[in-house]
Amino acid sequence: MPDTIAAIATGTQIAAIGIVRLSGERAGEIADTLFTPQSGKAMSASAPRTLVYGRLHDREGALLDLCLCTISRAPHSYTGEDTVEFQCHGSPVVLRTLLDECFALGARQALPGEFTRRAFLNGRLALSSAEAVADIIDAESAESAKNAAGQLAGALQERTEKIYNDLADISAHYHAVLDYPDEDIEPFRLAAYQRTMEEAHHSLSALLATFSRGKLMKDGIPAAIIGRPNAGKSSLLNALLGYERAIVTRIPGTTRDTIEEKLRLGPLTLRLIDTAGIRETDDEVERLGVARSRSAIERAELLLAVLDGSEPLTEEDEEILAAAEQAKHALVVLSKKDLSGGITVETTLPTVNVSSVTGEGIDALEKAIGDMFPLPGVPAGEILTNARHAEAVGRALESLRAALDALADGATPDIVLTESENAMAALGELDGRTVRQDVTERIFSRFCVGK
Ligand SMILES: Nc1nc2c(ncn2[C@@H]2O[C@H](COP(=O)(O)OP(=O)(O)OP(=O)(O)O)[C@@H](O)[C@H]2O)c(=O)[nH]1
Ligand SMILES: [Mg+2]
User: Would you say 258 and 362 are in contact if contact means Cβ atoms under 8 Å apart?
Assistant: First the structure.
């Protein structure tokens, strides 16, 4: 068992409960020194995976807290090693003192993600499940958290493992025929291989198709509010957020810089970006702002094109409409519905009339945005959200396609075999069985300390 690591698992804020966890050879011995169960028995003699009430004290016996402690024995623990968790009152001071006592007794500070890394290295978690631990912690919506929970429970692994095993069967058969030509082994079953690989290709293509939506689910949807000066962009930002985030005046050119705020809309997380009104200007600051607006348009997944609904369209409005029509997703927002002089706009884009002053139309706008980004109709856990996973699935698909082409062309068996094994290697990177060590190190270094 490697050295013993310790960390505060619950952060540094004051809270009702705070947890210090230990993993490694000395975990039990440290618990015995610092914790006395009410029963009088040693903690290391307590039943594993059971909460034990008692007195937490320092090495000299001075009382630190009354708390709960639980011990798990290798390999039946999260990390696969002996582990101890102290559930104390959530006082940062108590937790820090306890941690220092653990260090004095031979534990060392855990690195970011080190508990989960040990769980992976000890075969307790597939790599894709270990990554889902970070995703569930970082999730910004219930849907995102549910998908991460599904992946934590092995949804991706199950899906890819079946394909991996089918390909491994093909591979084994190929090797048997090629390596032992004299034995009485059934000859190649090319039609069956083809069917298996077609099915695998189909399943992985469907999985990869979820990634574009999955990425937006995980990272949020960059949504730029664009329009000419005074169109009502900042007012719309404020109305959507529900508070006065951006300065609003009747002077055109009020917003000079982009302003970004997160907005939760049911299952969606928008990264709303208010921009400087786009126009030709001699003012240097405003010109820089307009350049930022244009770059926000480039980066946005969704454009909210705001047109002043109380005034006739201008040339600048036409330019905004043209940009929106080019975008991946866009909505036209006709602002200032409460004022008279309503205009109509000819566009194929969905159009919503709103008043940021009265709030009229804001619900309809939110609904229209939601309708643009439906979730893929697949079980939780089967939406790809991780670029590393998508990249590996993409490579597996390329190799499968090459293997299928080789089969169809009547190529020599070794070509089919090589491509099929390349596909297996790519799939193995998902659950971690064929992943390079520097890749796993990079993955776990992004975790928080204590996880
Ligand atoms: N009556 C009414 N006035 C509005 C509405 N939305 C915005 N306005 C007014 O229009 C003017 C410009 O609003 P802003 O939200 O600052 O417009 P903007 O598009 O951000 O303007 P710039 O930052 O200059 O590009 C202000 O006087 C707002 O009060 C609305 O729904 N109804
Ligand atoms: Mg503004």
Answer: no
